[in-house]
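user: Kindly work through both lines:
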Amino acid sequence: MGNLVNEFNLESGQNVLLVNSREADSSDIVKKVESINNFVHPGGVVKVENVGRLSLGDHKPSSFDVIISDVVAPRTIQHDSDLFEVYLTYLKPQGRFIIQEAVKSLDSLTSILKLNGFRNISESKNIVVDDDEKSKLSDVLKSETFHLIQIEGQKPNYDVGSSAKINLPVSDNVAAVWKLDDTVDDDIIDADDLLDEEDLKKPDPASLKVCGTTGKRKACKNCSCGLADELEKEASAVKETPKSSCGSCYLGDAFRCASCPYLGMPPFKPGEKIQLSGIQLKADV
């Protein structure tokens, strides 16, 4: 009993959760519960859970002062983040935990505890095991090299999901920057003073054209200044340059074919537009 007090530091009135592995012997569990009861009574309660059914229990959050995990041989529980999350939920603020575990690395368990939010994590203590338990632990870890250690820690002084108000210092000399009813007589620029008569004149539409202002007259895509329509009209007004089938009609009748529509007409310049009469366009019958 004296050794138990030194090991777990239990006090009268504390609520304790004892978590055991699936392989733990029931008679050893009963003995451990009786020993713990000697230190938490009167007023304290000891509850026992199998690690495989821990999440199925009806324990309320923040209901235990101490959680003692895997202290009954064989100590085969592998404490991971999911299990520590449950412990963090069940512990009261500033509640303690004591766990024993076979590990390959002394620092691995400490790192997991810190990542899960526990504080005041103690130095690990090596625990001597007999040959029978050592054989069972070797089968679980698939290794002959391991350490059975005990480590303790504490839940922070707040519940999971809790919040607290942060009192930030507030200065008395705060500028009323965002007040809508600010009556400070500031110099405000009159919007009418920003425009002169030249700015109010209606601009010439031609000066607003962007198309064709950088060299060759070409309308922009989706042109809205009118240049596209203007160029289209100019293109439709341009007629095709008359072309001669023989290429020598403009020289005169001496160089024209028998069926040339220009027969009887004087010579003309190459490319010159010649208006033919209706009679000349009719075929001979």
User: Anything to note?
Assistant: The mean pLDDT is 80. The two ends are 141 Å apart (CA to CA). Helices lie at 2-8, 26-40, 81-90, 106-115, 131-141, 197-200, 227-237, 278-281. The beta strands are 15-20, 45-50, 64-69, 91-103, 125-126, 147-154.
